[in-house]
Every structure is written in structure tokens, then in C-alpha cells.
Amino acid sequence: MHRPLVITEDHALLDDLVRIAAAAGAQLDVAHVPAHARPYWNLAPLIVVGADQADAVAAASPPARDQILLVTRDPDDPDTWRKCVTVGAQSVVTLPGDERHLVERLADAMEPDPRSGALICVLGGRGGAGASVLSACLALRASGDHLRTLLVDADPLGGGIDALLGHEEAPGARWGDLVAREGRISSSALQAALPSFGDLAVLSFHRGEVGAIPAQAMRSVLEAGRRGFDLIVADLPRHLDPAAIEALTRAKTTLVVATADVRGILSAGQVLGEARKHTSDLRAVLRPGVLDDDIATGSLGIPAAGTLPDQPRLTATLNRGELPRLGPRTVLGALCSSLLRDLVPAA
């Protein structure tokens, strides 16, 4: 894998950049003059040009490209933005103030096979509506279609979505392990740490006492998921905590599972009232009830995404630690495939 390139003759600045790169888990290729940079120019995922070499780089007329930063330690230099334009940089990084931003840019540059995963959130309109089952089945169906999928259990009191999948004993990190860390998480480190089954990685909770997920921890996981996965499915609690709100604000679509009866629709309406404060694309997945589907979705005021029929054998299957069949000819499999086609074009 190619490394970020630094072009500078300022040894003090280079020392700072080497230290910052180490914090990002990156090693650097270094050129003290533009001529030494030629072999790396088109290959480096990111180029950092010291302000001391900006004019020399411009004079060498290298091919235009993106992912170039101009770095300076003098925020008051009136010539900085001229140098930025001259060298073809996309932005200026001023040290030490922008150090954290540079760490993130270097870390992003070292991510293998970057992706741009879509986040789908799933909310239950009331307890027992089937949101966790739908979340798990969506993730299973997507991974079965060879989409690299991350299933995130965001409900500390939900009993563990890994148990729903029959994998509660699988080795790997849980929320408690990630909450203890601060700052950015690389997508490759996240994938390596979590329990994985083929193209599906699962983030759930340890058994026993669990605490709330800090919003910053959720943000770091979702950002890593976006970079490293094709799809992230988040099973959210009905009572929205800061972590759930963090997920909702990033969601491409949120599915609300509602039962088509009076109390189910009233309860789902209350959940929607809170969810609408944080996200815009909300769609209903209906469970059968006494109300007509059109009346139920009309009462909720959001479009219908599909129907999740009752399946008497599903609970027994899950309680045995077995996974439901999600083939295209099964009702549940057909629903998940339809949702994925609508929400994730690559599916």
C-alpha cells in the first residue's frame, strides 16, 4: 500500500508531521525537494506540501491531482492562500491548531478499499413490533448478497442482537470495549475487532450490566462503518438517547415497524414525533392488524416501505438459535430483498 507523501525541507515541521502521522497509524514518504517527489506524486494517497516548498513544487509543474494539503505553522502569513492556489492544494492546514484534522486526513488516506456505506436505522413503533428481527434479517440478506454489512445494536436494554442471531458467545469486541477508546476508529481495526460471519460484522453488548453509548462513540463507529462497509443497519431504542439521535441524524432512511391496530399506530405516532426532530426520510413497515394498510400509513403520515407478515414459526426458530430462511421465495426474504433494492441501489 502506498504511503502519504510529505514535501518539505523544514526539519522542525517534518518532525511534527512524523509525530502526527504516527498518531494516525501512518508512515510517510518524504521528499526534501520537488524533484525527489516525482516517483511518488501520482501514487501517494495524500500529499502534504510544506509552505517552504510550495513555490518550488509549483515551478516543477507536476500533474494536477486531488488530495493535496498545504501545511504551515504561520497562521498570519498573508502569502499562504496564494501558495495554496499555486500548488493546487485543496485546503490549508495550520499547526498546531489543525493537528487533529490532519491526523484524521492521514488516517483516512491509509484506509484500504474505502467505501461509502449507507446507514439504515430501524425503530420499533412499540415494544415487540419486530424492529430487531427486521434489522437482523436485513443485515443477513445484505451480507448474503455479498454486501459488506455492519449490524449495530444501539439498544442497551434490548437483550443483545448477537443473541437474536444465535452468536452471543462469538469472540470479538462489544460496545464496552469500544466505549473505553476515545477518538477516531479505523474501519480496518473495527472489522478486525468485531465478531464477523462472512460479510456480516456485528456490534452488540456484553452480557450483564450495560451502560448508555456515548454519542461520540456512536459517531466514531458510524464513521468507520461508512468508510469500511457497503451497508450499516442500526437497531435503535424507542426512547431516543444521544447515541440513537447521532445515528438518526446520519441515516439515509429510517424504517419504523408499526402494528396496524389502534394502539400500535398511536404508539408509532409518538415515536415518529421524536424521530422527525432528527431525520427526514421515514418509512413504515407494517405488521398485520385490524386496520387497513392504507389507513395505518395515512394515520402515520409517512410512506409504506413494505409489510412484515406474522410468522408463527419465526420466534421458535430464533429461540433455538437458528437463523430464519431468507431465500427470495420466503416472505421475509422477499421483503428484505425489496427493501434493499429500494434503499441500497447496489443491492
TrEMBL record:
Q: Name one GO biological process term.
A: negative regulation of cell division
GO MF annotation terms: ATP binding; ATP hydrolysis activity
> Ranges for the Rv3660c-like CheY-like N-terminal domain?
7-115
- InterPro entries assigned: P-loop_NTPase, ParA/MinD_ATPase, Rv3660c, Rv3660c_N
Organism domain of life: Bacteria
Q: Which GO terms describe its cellular component?
A: cytoplasmic side of plasma membrane; cytosol
Q: Which NCBIfam families match?
A: CpaE_hom_Actino (TIGR03815)
Q: What is the designated name of this protein?
A: Chromosome partitioning protein
